[in-house]
Amino acid sequence: MKKNIIILWLSFIVLCSCKRDKELESSEKLQPEYTMIKLSGDRPNLNISILLDLSDRIDPVKYPNGAMDYYLRDIGHIKSVAQAFEIHLRNKQSIRINDHIQLYLDPEPSDRKLNEKIKSLKMSFTRDNATRELILQTSKSYDSIARQIYETAITDNKYVGSDTWRFFKNKVKDYCIDDQSRNILVVLTDGYIYHKDTKLKEINHTTYLTPQDIRKFKLDDKDWQEKITNENFGFIPANSDLTNLEVLVLGINSDKKNPYEEDVIIKYWTDWLENMGISKFEIKVTDLPTNMDKLIKDYILNE
């Protein structure tokens, strides 16, 4: 009798062990490519928008970089944003999930098939569809489709610029702000703003800024800050009362011929965002995705 009990007990242990091994194997297949982060407290609803600047700044021939091409850096940053969104969802009670992520180009590409893929990146998660498999597909989709977007733009070699100013004017309130969410707009840009159809000037305020403009405005010497203050240089505010929007600007990449240019660009963006009522924002210069990954995730995951 005793012997039979021992055999049954050993059989039970083996069966449990096999079951745990299968569960572990299944879990490992679903693990993302980063270490799972445990977050405490109730998670707010997240509404993340990504705006791409597909101007010639991404041209690997015109602007080569030995460490990593700038368009590949963008793709890496986009993946970090999507992974942060995944981490957020996986640390939230399923009954409370009501979160969104989307990607925008302005102007939209003329390629209809590419537009359909971009539309597929407009994702909403609720308690009804937030399965682990679907959540973990987010960063894979963003990485794959973002790569197609950049490669198509580079192959076409038709860089019409990014109408960033008009996006803030006409679309940001409708597209990027949800009253029930924490709204974050991630802008991938070198910091310069230009589009052929949006060239407005009001005294020393403009809707554009290029290296040529910085030289023309004589903001290329040590007195640049005093000149901006005294002569009121800057971007024309594109909107107002954007108090429910946070902005994370990634990729500032100034013309190295002017040692003050990076500071001028950051000053322009800082004043512009503040003048539109945006109080929470960060502006970061270009860096490798491995260096920016933690910064991006910390910004999104820490309120």
Major beta sheet summary = 6 strands, mixed
Report how far the terminal alpha carbons are from each other. Answer: 62 Å
**Spatial ordering of strands, largest sheet:** 3-2-1-5-10-11
Supply the helix-strand structural class: alpha/beta
Total count of strands:
11
What count of helical segments does DSSP give?
A: 11
CATH-assigned fold name of the domain at 43-192 and 240-301:
Rossmann fold
Question: In percent, how much strand structure appears in the residues?
Answer: 15-25%
Helical fraction equals 40-55%
Shape: globular
Which CATH C-level class of the domain at 43-192 and 240-301 is it?
Alpha Beta
Question: Any guess at the CATH architecture of the domain at 43-192 and 240-301?
Answer: 3-Layer(aba) Sandwich
* Low-pLDDT segments, ≥5 res: 2-35
Mean pLDDT over the residues? 89
Helix and strand succession? Answer: HEHEHEHHEHHEEEEHHEEHEH
CA radius of gyration: 24 Å
Secondary structure blueprint with pairings:
Layout: H1 2-30, E1 46-52, H2 70-90, E2 98-105, H3 112-119, E3 123-126, H4 132-136, H5 138-156, E4 161-162, H6 164-170, H7 172-176, E5 182-188, E6 194-195, E7 201-202, E8 205-206, H8 211-216, H9 224-231, E9 234-235, E10 246-252, H10 261-275, E11 281-285, H11 289-301
Parallel strand pairs: 1-2, 1-5, 5-10, 8-9, 10-11
Antiparallel strand pairs: 2-3, 4-6, 7-8
